[in-house]
Amino acid sequence: MIKQIFGKLPRKPSKSSHNDSNGDGGVHGNSSPGPNSFNNSKPGSASSKSSSSSRLNNDPLNSHSSSSNKSNHGKKTAPLAIQAGPVLASGDYEALPSFRDVPNSEKQNLFLRKLGMCYVVFDFSDPSKNLKEKDIKRQMLLELVDYVSSVSTKFNEVAMQEIARMVAANLFRTFPSPNHDSKIIETYDAEDEEPAMDPAWPHLQIVYELLLRFVVSPETDAKLAKRYMDHPFVLKLLDLFDSDDQREREYLKTILHRIYGKFMVQRPFIRKAINNIFYRFIFETEKHNGIAELLEILGSIINGFALPLKEEHKLFLVRALIPLHKPKCVSMYHQQLSYCITQFVEKDFKLADTVVRGLLKYWPVTNSSKEVMFLGELEEVLEATQAAEFQRCMLPLFRQIGRCLNSLHFQVAERALFLWNNDHIRNLITQNRTVILPIIFPALERNMRHHWNPAVQSLTLNVRKIFLDADQALFDECLARFQEDEAKGKDMQEKRELIWKRLEDVAASKAVSDEAVLVSGSISSIVIDTSPTPKATTGQ
Questions:
Q1: Domain count, the chain
Q2: Among the three residues 263, 280, 306, which one is the final residue of a domain in this structure?
Q3: Last residue of some domain: 204, 230, 263?
Q4: Which GO terms describe its biological process (predicted)?
Q5: CATH number, domain containing residue 80
Q6: Does residue 76 lie in a domain region?
Q7: 102, CA 20 to 30 Å: which among 41, 429, 454, 510?
Q8: Any residues with CB less than 8 A from the CB of 92 and at least 6 apart, and which?
């Protein structure tokens, strides 16, 4: 019986094939697990085992590979990626004994044999192909997850190596390129967009779960495991963030964050690798599916930065995070980006001026919905801003806010006026009213007199009252200056209209003749030149 079982196992790959399976690249990271990480119970505990199996068994996609394809009916199917692992060459793929059926002394060997059989990657583009083998592999993967979650002895190097190789064979793949040649999208509506479903997810999910359980396991020695969770391994994990399948990106987010927390030696490289993804996205492609998830990881990492902030981290803010406001599809990840930016200001309030000027640099001109998002982020930043930094940026800031106040898009004007509802911002404005009120007073007056939206007019009156109550003398001075400027502007407009009327009259009276009509530099007079038109001269 034992001979028959061993005869059916795939042969152990050669040393050279193992070295190639690690791929290429490198990475580094820092901090505790993120808010969306799985439960923090020990993998060996009963609660951890039950949570692990319940996540897998409760997912309808994992009930069976064939039923999974039925459940995808009516949903967008992600294009099949090019797989890195070996593909089944023969039908000789039989189940191995369960861990319950072998003595403890044999479980380690059985674990390695099951990992070896799971190197095989099946073709999920045809739902009717290899149904039996797919189910056998799925059951083995589930058993491997349970084993990793409940093991009570340290993983040795052989086990770590085989886990890394099996994970690489199943997960590391190249996504089809047409996805990146598509037109850059400006907005994203989760309700209109059909979720992409990877047909191989019934196996992929369990492999991700196994990797997660291995990384968080107390039986995983980080000093040994870092040889296999190395730079090439982590870089290939980062490449997978571009997956169309959101479920995959969620797993990747949790796993990468756990790797960042456990393998301290990897931290600087992970940050650098994420930087490079952002640079390519901002300055080259403007297309990547995983920017929101990467920013979510970074939000937790930034929260764990030690003070004072390193120059490297400040450069990351200036060179990567602030320019992420530039792409047209910023709405897809703006919430996570805003959180990261605010974390930096809360860590070091002196960065507020840098952040505000960065926002003004990328302030949208024609995209009103994007402008509303910027105003919301601006409020969060100003809430963490101290008086000295506020004074450094208030001139350009309130010139822009004044333009927002006069926006014909009522949501933009309304969102700008809502800034005065924030007590901290209102106090900063009141303390610097002698500079700010002259800048925005014309916008407030025009809103009150001419804005088409009643809600905007009402909010404008409230803001005017705040300034009036704070300093009536300054308010009256600004009002007098505004009325004076209005009168001058009205006179200038009347003079322009008079000139145009005279020009029209002269043009109408001389329309039939060939005489030239010249206008003098004086605003008040028009001189008619009746002399013959001079001929052009050359060679002078």
A1: 2
A2: 263
A3: 263
A4: signal transduction
A5: 1.25.10.10
A6: yes
A7: 41
A8: 8
Report how far residue 292's alpha carbon sits from residue 276's, in angstroms, rounded to the nearest whole number: 15
Instruction: Kindly state the tokens that stand for 464.
Output: 């005017």
Produce one character per residue of 481-520: b if its CB has 16 or more CB atoms within 10 Å, e if not: ebeeeeeeeeeeeeeeeeeeeeeeeeeeeeeeeeeeeeee
Q: Which two tokens stand for residue 239?
A: 């490449």
Other beta carbons less than 10 A from residue 247's beta carbon: 18
Q: Which regions of 436-528 does DSSP assign to beta strands (E)?
A: 517-518, 527-528
Whether 352 maps to a domain, the answer reads no
Q: Is residue 5 part of a domain?
A: yes
Q: What is the pLDDT along the chain (540 residues), one digit of tens a residue?
A: 444 444 444 444 433 333 333 333 333 333 333 334 333 333 344 444 444 444 454 443 333 333 334 444 444 555 445 454 454 444 567 778 888 888 888 888 999 999 999 998 888 877 778 788 888 999 999 999 999 999 888 999 999 999 999 999 999 988 876 444 444 444 444 444 566 778 889 899 999 999 999 999 999 999 999 999 999 999 999 999 999 999 999 999 999 999 999 999 999 999 999 999 999 999 998 999 999 999 999 999 999 999 999 999 999 999 999 999 999 999 999 999 999 999 999 999 999 999 999 999 999 999 999 999 999 999 999 999 999 999 999 999 999 999 999 999 999 999 999 999 999 999 999 999 999 999 999 999 999 999 999 999 999 999 999 999 999 999 999 999 999 988 888 889 889 988 898 888 877 777 666 666 665 555 444 444 444 444 444 444
Enclosing domain of residue 498: 483-528
